[in-house]
Write a structure and sequence with these properties.
Four copies of one chain form a homotetramer. With 376 residues, the first copy, chain A, is an alpha+beta fold. Chain A has two domains: 123 residues, Galactose-binding domain-like (Jelly Rolls, Sandwich), CATH 2.60.120; 239 residues, 3-Layer(aba) Sandwich (Rossmann fold), CATH 3.40.50.1110. Chain A is 21% helix and 26% strand. Chain A is globular, with a radius of gyration of 21 Å.
Chain lengths: 376, 376, 376, 376
C-alpha cells in the first residue's frame, strides 16, 4: 500500500472534483458555506482522508458523507484542525465515489461558524467525476436547512445537531434527478420577515451576496459579503421554499427592531384572515424577489414550492406570483405545493422528519421531471 | 327466522335511513343520481334485500356496497327490475351497517341512465343510523367520477365499469372525516370548457339544477332539471376539483359547436404558455362559479383542490380565486394542491388508480382536519 | 355490432379456454368445485356473458372476476339460473382477457352448494389463452379458503361472503409467478383434526377424491366423490398450508364424535407444551399425508408453508417432515414459514386480511422463485 | 454554564448507567467488546463528552450514538485517545437520554481491536436510567454483526464501515420490546463451521468465554478469554440466528486447516441435497449448542431464528432442535423463520440492508411479544 499523498483542493483538476454549493473567490482552503455545500471525488486507492479547519461559537458545524451514494457517517466538528479518514483498507483499484457535505446551515447567529476544506489525502488517483448536466438552486428556511430532520419527536432545542443536508428534500430531489445543487437557507427567516416579525430576517436581503448570512471578520475575509457571481453557476431550476415563517409571524407578538427603533407586527383580521395591508407586504416582497431572481438567472425555471409545514399562504404567494407574471410577462415561473408534514412524518421540534422530506422529494422530483422534460 | 318484509324508502323513518347525494323532489322510488349517491341503513335480522329499477343505454350503471364499513360487492346492473340480496344468514340480533352506492356518474351522454331504489327488505328492525355531523360537497370531473379507479393500466375504453365511487378520493375523504357527502361530477368537463374545447361542458352550467347532467324524459320526470333546493343540505366544505379538462383543452383541436355554429379553441402562445385571453376565460368562469357557490352556500368553506392529473393550472386557478377574494372580500376560500398521479399510482386509461385516490384522500383529510378544526 | 352467440364450455377448443381448479369427469356444464376454481378466456367482440346455474342452502356461492388482470366485480349468487354480463360496449377488435372464479370454498356443510358454468356468450372470437408453464397446488384450511379476507375487523359471522379467492395469498402467488393453480381447502379443518377436535375434519381424508368435500346427490352425480385422476394435472409445486387448526384443537374442549361414539381431545401438558402422544398423532398424519402426496405427484416439490395465524406447530410439523424425509429418502420437500397476521394486517373474524395475504404472497413468491429457479 | 466534570465509568452509580453487552471483570476503563455493546445514561446539563481509547489494525472500530432514542451520529475511530462531544448547548434542566454503542463486531481477525470507555464528562447530573425489565441475548453471524447494513448495493469490500449495530434487527427488536440486549456474533461463522468450511469458525467454541472472539495480549489482559459469568446476566430469551454460513459451506471448496493438517468439506449429494453425514454434523453441533445454552441459561426461552439470507437449513435446524427436545425433554425452545432479504431490501455485498433488518425486527418483535406474553 502506497503512503497517503495530500492535495490541496486547488491542486485537484476541476474535472476531478465537484463542488456543491455557492463559492466566493476563495477556493483554497475551500469554504463550505451552506448546508449541503461540499465536495465529491472519485478516487482509487485504499484510503481517503480529508483535512479540515473549523470554527464556531454556539452552533458547531456537523458534517456527513456518503460512499458510492450511500450514507456512511455523520459527526460534530468542534473548533480546530481535523484530519478525518473517510475510508480505509478498500480494494485499491476500484474507483470509490465520495460525497462529503456540511450539515449545518450558514449560521447567521454564529459569526465564527466556519468549515474549510484544506486538503484531500489519497494513496491512489483522482478520477473524473461524472458531470452533472442539471442544476437546481434551492432557497428556503428551516425546512431547507433540514431542521428537525434528525432528533426525537419530543426534542425542542434549537441546536446544530438537529439540522442537516443528509436528510433533506432538497438534496434528495437533486440526487433523484442526478442534478448539481445549491442550497441557500436560513431557519426562521421568510421572504418578507422572520417567524417573530423581525423584518431583517428575509432571504432576499442576502441572496445577492456570496453568503450574506455569514458575517464576522473571518467570514468576511473570505468574501461572504461580496456580490455573488451569478454567471459562474446558472441553474436550470430555482426552487423557492419560503413563506412558512411569514405565515407564522401573524400569530406571533410584535417585534421591536433595535436597529431602527420601530416595532413590527403582521396582523390578523378579527375573522382570522390576514390583514390585507400586511399580506400585501409579503406579496410585494415576493414580486420583488422574483424580479431579482430573474435578473440574475435569465433562463431558470422558477418554481415556488411551499407547503411542508402548512399551506396557509397558498393564495398569498400565488397572488404575488401572478402579479409578477402579469407585470413582467415572464411565464417561466410556477407554483407547486409540497405535501404537508403529519404526525406520521414529523421529525424533531415539529419540523419535517425523514419521511416528510422523502415524501416531498418524491413529489418534487415527479414535478420537475415533467416540468423540465427530465424524463430519465 | 322471520320472513322478509319490504319497506318503501319513503316508509322508513328519516332517522333510520341516511341518503347520500343530492335529491330532488322524488323520494319514492329513490333515484340515485350521481356516483356515490346511495343509502345507509343499520338493521338487525339475518337478511337484507334491496329492490331496484334501473335503465340505461350505452353506459349501464354499476353499484357497490359495504357491510360494516368494509367493501363487499360490486356489480353491473342491466335495464330492468332487480332484487339483490346484500347479506343473508347473519347473526340476527347484531346490528349491521350497510352502505349501498351507485358507482357510475350522472351520465350526461345516456338519457336512459337511471337507478331507482324501490324497497328495502329485512327480517329484523331498522335501527338509528348515526348522524353525520359534517358535510362535504365535491364538485369535479372524471377524477371525482372515479374514472380509471378500476381496470388494468392498459385499458383505454371509456365505459361505465372503470368508473366508481367505491375507489374514490372523495368518498375516502368523507369516510376518513366521518362526513356526509355529495358528489357532482362529470368526466371530460371543466369549469369553463371540456377537454375537447366544447364550451357547453362545464359544471357551473348544471350546478344549480338537481342533476342538470341527467336529461331525457324519464330523468326530467323525476325533476333532475329543476332548481336544486340548496337550503335542504348546506355543506361545511365545498371541494371543487376542476381545471384538469380546461388545461387539456389547450392541447386539443378546435371544437365546432353545432348549437351555435361556432368553433372554439383554447390557444397556446408560441412559447407554450397559455394565451392570456383564453386563460382569462377560465378565470372568469372560476370567479363566476365561486360567486354562485357562495350565493347558495353562505357558510361553507370553499376549497379548490386540484392536481391529481398535473398542476398546470395552479397559477390560473389561484389568480381567479384571488380576484374573487379581492372583489368579494370573501376570505372563506382556499386553494389546496392534491398529489399528482404517477406511474406507481395510476389506474386505467391514465387516470388515478387506487393508490392515487388513497394518497389524495390522505392529504385532503389532513388538510380539512386542520382547516376545519375537525381534530377527531 | 353482431349479436351474442353462446358456446357451451365443451364446445370451446381447449387452447381457447383455461380452467382453474380440479375437475372431475364432467366438463359440461362445468362445475366450479373449489374457491379459485374458474375459467379464463381471451375474446374479441364488444360483450361477454356467462351463463351459470347455482344452488346452495346456507352458504350461497360468491363469484368474482377480472378484466385484463384487474379486479372488476364480486357478487353473491342465489340458487337458480344466471346470465351475467361481464363486460359490454368494449372496443371490439382488442382482445380482452377475462378470469371468472368461484369465491366460496368447496362447502362441506352445504350439500346443495353448486356452481355450474353452462355457456359463454360473445359477439367476437375466442383467442388462444397463453399457456401457463408452471403449476402450483395449494392445500389448506380457512386461510387458503380466504376466510376473513373480506369484511370488517369486528365481523365474526361464519358466512360465505367473508371467504374468497380474489383476496388470497394462493391466487396472488400463482399470479405473481404466472402459474396455473389448484386450491383444495376447508375452513376449520386440519391435517389430523379440526379446530374443535373433530378427527373427521382432516384434508388427507378428502385429498384423493375429485372433491371429497362436496357431498349430496347432486355433487356426487357429477363425480365429486370419485377418485381424482392425478395424472391429468401434475403440479410443479405443492404448497401445504395446514396445521393452524390442529394447533387450535389443544385449547378447545373435547369433541364427541357421533359416528363412532368416542370423544376426542388433543391435550396440553401442565407447562403448556403439547402432550407428546397427541403431538405424535399430528406428526403421523403429516408423514402419512406426505407419503400420499408423493405417491400421486412424483416430481412435485412439496413445500409445507405455515405460519399466517401463528407458528406454534413449527417444530411439530418439521419433526414430521424430517421423519418422512428420513424414512422415504425423499428430499424434495421443504418447510417455509409464512409471515404472521398482525393487528395491522388482520381481516374479519381474526383471520388474515388483504395485507396479510399480500405479505404472505410476497414472501412465498420470493421463496418459490428461488427454490424452483423460476427467475422471471 | 458550569464546566465539564469527568467521571470514570466505575464512579457512576449502577442505577445511573446502563451497560449493553457482555462484560468481563474489567469495568474501568469499560471495554465495549461486541457490536451493540455500549452505555446509556440520562443526564441534565448542557453538554456531554465521552472519553475513549481505541486500537485496531485492519478493522478500525466505528461507533454510533442516539439522543433520546433517535440516531444522531456515526463515525470511525482510529487508534488513540478520543474525547468526543455527543451534545452541547442543550437546555440544561431537561434530562437527555444518550445511548452510545460500538458498531463493529468483536473482531476475531484483528487482535488489536479495542474500544475502551474511560470517562463521561457532563456539566449536570446523572439521573436514573429506567430499568430494562426484559433481556434478550442474540447469537449470530454476519447478519447479527450488521454486515452490509451500511453501504451501496454494489459495495463488496469486507471492511468495518459496512457493519453496524445501529441498523440491526437485533437492536431494533430489543428497542421495540424495551429490552436490554447482548449481541454475540461473528461474520462468516456458523454453528458447526464457517462459510469456507473452516471448522474452527463456530460460535459455540467461543460462547462460554467472556469474548472468545477477541484475542491478542491486550484483549486477553482484560479477560476476554476467561469464562463468562452467566449468573451475572440471565436473559429471558436467547435468539440464535446461526446456520447461514453452515449452509454456504456446502457450495464452497474444501478448507485446509493448518492447525490439524486436515482438509474439511461439507458435501452435496448429486441431486443437490445435503450429504446426510455432513448434515448430521451440523445437527450434532446444534444439539450440543442448545445443551450448552440451557446449561448456562436455565430459564431462558431459546428461539432459533433463521432465514434472512435464505432458509435452506430449515429442516436441518429443526431436526436438530427436535432431537434436543426429544432427548432433553426441554420444550422451552422454538424455531422461528425470519423474512428473507430480497432485491428491494438488500444492503451492501448481498447482505440485509435497512429494510431487511426492519422487516425482520417487525416479525421477530411480534413473535416474541406473543411467545413471551410481552404485550405492551
Amino acid at each position: 500500500m502506497e503512503s497517503i499523498k495530500y492535495f490541496e483542493v486547488s491542486e485537484i483538476p476541476e474535472k476531478n472534483i465537484h463542488i456543491f454549493g455557492r463559492m466566493g473567490r476563495q477556493k483554497q482552503p475551500l469554504p463550505l458555506l451552506f448546508n449541503g455545500s461540499g465536495i465529491e471525488v472519485v478516487v482509487t486507492g485504499t484510503d481517503l482522508w480529508i483535512e479540515l479547519e473549523t470554527d464556531s461559537d454556539f452552533h458547531e458545524p456537523w458534517v456527513a458523507y456518503e460512499v458510492n451514494g450511500a450514507f456512511m457517517g455523520r459527526q460534530m466538528l468542534l473548533p480546530g484542525e481535523h484530519n478525518i479518514c473517510l475510508f480505509r483498507n478498500m480494494e485499491p483499484s476500484t474507483p470509490k465515489r465520495i460525497r462529503f457535505i456540511r450539515e449545518l446551515q450558514a449560521m447567521s447567529e454564529d459569526d465564527r461558524s466556519k468549515v474549510l476544506i484544506k486538503r484531500i489525502g489519497i494513496n491512489g488517483e483522482f478520477k473524473e467525476v461524472p458531470e452533472y448536466k442539471r442544476k437546481i438552486e434551492f432557497i428556503g428556511d428551516s425546512i431547507t436547512s433540514g431542521e428537525g430532520s434528525y432528533g426525537a419527536m419530543a426534542d425542542v432545542d434549537w441546536i446544530a445537531m438537529y439540522m442537516s443536508a443528509s436528510v433533506n428534500y432538497a438534496t434528495f430531489t437533486a440526487k433523484n434527478l442526478n442534478a448539481d445543487y445549491h442550497l441557500i437557507s436560513q431557519g426562521g427567516w421568510g421572504v418578507y420577515c422572520g417567524w417573530d416579525n423581525d423584518v431583517r430576517h428575509n432571504l432576499p436581503s442576502v441572496y445577492e451576496k456570496v453568503c450574506g448570512l455569514s458575517s464576522g471578520p473571518s467570514n468576511e475575509a473570505i468574501g461572504t459579503q461580496e456580490p455573488y457571481d451569478f454567471d459562474s453557476w446558472q441553474p436550470d431550476v430555482i426552487v423557492v421554499n419560503l413563506g412558512t415563517n411569514d405565515a407564522t409571524s401573524f400569530n406571533q407578538p410584535p417585534f421591536y427592531n433595535p436597529e431602527d427603533g420601530k416595532t413590527y407586527k403582521m396582523r390578523l383580521n378579527e375573522d382570522g384572515s390576514y390583514n390585507r395591508e400586511d399580506e400585501l407586504k409579503i406579496e410585494d416582497a415576493i414580486v420583488s424577489f422574483l424580479t431579482v431572481l430573474r435578473k440574475h438567472n435569465k433562463k431558470a425555471h422558477i418554481a415556488w414550492c411551499y407547503g411542508m409545514l402548512g399551506s396557509d399562504l397558498n393564495l398569498t404567494i400565488t397572488e404575488a406570483i401572478n402579479k409578477y407574471r402579469d407585470s413582467s410577462k415572464d411565464n417561466n415561473v410556477s407554483f407547486f405545493q409540497l405535501p404537508n408534514t403529519t404526525m406520521e412524518t414529523v421529525g424533531s421540534h415539529m419540523h419535517p422528519g425523514f419521511k416528510s422530506h422523502e415524501n416531498a422529494s418524491k413529489e418534487l422530483t415527479d414535478y420537475l421531471r415533467n416540468k423540465m422534460g427530465w424524463l430519465e
